[in-house]
C-alpha cells in the first residue's frame, strides 16, 4: 500500500532546540536558513514543481517564524501569517497538491496545520488574555497567567462499509459533480475508534455495522489539524437511510467500479478522491483485498 498523502516529511523536527534559546538563536542567524513561500495559506510552487523557499533576508522583518525542522543542519521556517478566507476550497490548492512531490506536501501540511492552530489560539482559554508564540513556534504562552498551550490534533474516522463485495461511498453537496468519497466524522469524547466508525456510518447512511478493521492513518491540514483514521467495517445489510443534512447521496459500488474510478476511466460511475486524500488510499486498499 502506498504511503498516504501528507506523510513522509524529510525534515528533522528538532524538538531538542525548541526550548534552547541559544541554539534556536543560532538557527535564526544561519545564512542557509530557508522560509517556505506561501500565497495566503496556499503553497507557492517552484519552477521545478516543488515548494518555493526563500531566504530570511527576503522577509519584511516583522514576521514571527515557526521552525519546521532541519535538513542536513539547514533550518527551515514558515512565517506565521494571518490568512483569511477558506483556502481549503480554492482550486489553486488542489492544483498545487497534485503537482507537489509527496515529501513537499508533507512539509506543507505541517506548516499549514501550525499556522491555523496559531491563528485560532491567540487568546488564553483559561483567562482570556493574549498569548505569545514560544518553543520555536510549537506552542503559545499566556502573557497573564502563563498557561502554556500546545498544538493539538483532532482524531477523525474515515471508513468504507462493506457488504457482499460492495463498498459504501457518499458525497456532500460541496463536492464537485460526480465526486464520491468514504464517509467520515470526528471521534466524540468517551468513544473508541470502532464505536465512532459504527456510529458515523449509522448516523449518515442508516447502515448498522459489526466488525471494524484499522487500515492506515493520515494527517489532514485543512480546517485545523486532524488525524484521519482509515478503517473498513462489515455492514449487516445494505439498506440506506441518509441524513441529508450530512451527505447528499450515497451508493454501494463494486470493486470494478472503484477501479474504474481510480483509473479515471471515461465510463466510470463516479470520480474518486484525489491521490493525496486518504479516501483514495482506502479505496485502493479495498480493491486490492
List keywords for this structure.
alpha+beta, Nucleoside Triphosphate Pyrophosphohydrolase, 2 domains, 4-stranded mixed beta sheet, 6 helices, globular
Write the SSE topology.
Elements: H1 21-28, E1 34-36, E2 38-39, E3 42-43, E4 53-55, E5 65-71, E6 74-79, H2 91-99, H3 102-119, E7 131-134, E8 139-142, E9 148-149, E10 154-163, E11 166-171, E12 183-186, H4 193-205, E13 209-220, E14 226-235, E15 249-254, H5 255-263, H6 278-288
Helix pairs in contact: 5-6
Provide a short characterization of the protein structure:
With 289 residues, the protein is of the alpha+beta class. Helices cover 24% and strands 28% of the residues.
If helices are DSSP runs of H or I spanning 4 or more residues, what is the number of helices?
6
User: Which shape, going by the Cα principal axes?
Assistant: globular
> Which structural category do the helix and sheet elements fall into?
alpha+beta
Please tell me how large the radius of gyration is: 21 Å
Q: Can you tell me the residue ranges where pLDDT is under 50 for at least 5 consecutive residues?
A: none
CATH topology of the largest domain: Nucleoside Triphosphate Pyrophosphohydrolase
Percent of residues in helices comes to 10-25%
Q: What is the overall pLDDT average?
A: 94
How much of the sequence is in beta strands?
A: 25-35%
CATH superfamily of the largest domain: Nucleoside Triphosphate Pyrophosphohydrolase
* SSE arrangement, N to C: HEEEEEEHHEEEEEEHEEEHH
Oligomer: single chain
- Strand elements, count: 15
Main sheet characteristics: 6 strands, mixed
State the separation between the terminal residues, measured CA to CA.
11 Å
CATH architecture of the largest domain: Alpha-Beta Complex
CATH class of the largest domain: Alpha Beta
Amino acid at each position: 500500500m502506498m504511503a498516504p498523502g501528507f506523510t513522509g516529511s524529510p525534515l528533522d523536527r528538532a524538538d531538542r532546540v525548541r526550548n534552547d534559546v541559544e541554539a534556536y538563536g543560532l538557527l535564526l542567524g544561519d545564512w542557509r536558513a530557508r522560509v517556505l513561500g506561501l500565497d495566503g495559506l496556499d503553497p507557492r510552487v517552484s519552477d521545478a514543481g516543488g515548494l518555493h523557499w526563500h531566504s530570511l533576508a527576503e522577509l519584511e522583518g516583522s514576521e514571527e517564524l515557526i521552525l519546521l525542522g532541519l535538513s542536513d543542519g539547514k533550518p527551515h521556517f514558515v512565517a506565521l501569517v494571518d490568512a483569511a478566507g477558506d483556502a481549503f476550497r480554492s482550486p489553486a490548492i488542489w492544483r498545487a497538491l497534485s503537482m507537489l512531490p509527496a515529501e513537499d506536501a508533507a512539509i506543507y501540511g505541517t506548516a499549514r496545520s501550525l499556522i491555523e492552530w496559531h491563528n485560532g489560539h491567540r487568546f488564553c482559554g483559561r483567562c482570556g488574555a493574549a498569548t505569545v508564540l514560544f518553543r520555536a513556534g510549537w506552542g503559545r504562552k499566556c502573557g497573564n497567567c502563563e498557561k502554556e498551550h500546545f498544538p493539538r490534533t483532532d482524531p477523525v474516522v474515515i471508513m468504507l462499509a462493506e457488504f457482499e463485495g460492495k463498498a459504501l461511498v457518499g458525497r456532500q453537496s460541496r463536492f464537485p459533480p460526480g465526486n464520491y468519497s468514504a464517509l467520515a466524522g470526528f471521534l466524540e469524547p468517551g468513544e473508541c475508534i470502532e464505536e465512532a466508525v459504527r456510529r458515523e456510518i449509522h448516523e449518515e447512511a442508516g447502515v448498522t455495522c459489526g466488525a471494524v478493521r484499522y487500515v492506515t492513518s493520515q494527517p489532514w491540514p485543512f480546517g485545523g489539524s486532524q488525524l484521519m483514521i482509515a478503517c473498513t467495517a462489515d455492514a449487516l445489510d445494505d439498506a440506506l437511510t441518509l441524513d441529508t443534512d450530512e451527505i447528499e447521496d450515497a451508493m454501494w459500488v463494486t470493486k470494478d467500479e472503484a477501479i474504474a474510478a481510480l483509473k479515471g476511466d471515461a465510463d466510470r460511475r463516479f470520480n474518486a478522491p484525489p491521490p493525496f486524500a486518504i479516501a483514495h488510499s482506502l479505496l485502493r486498499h479495498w480493491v486490492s483485498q
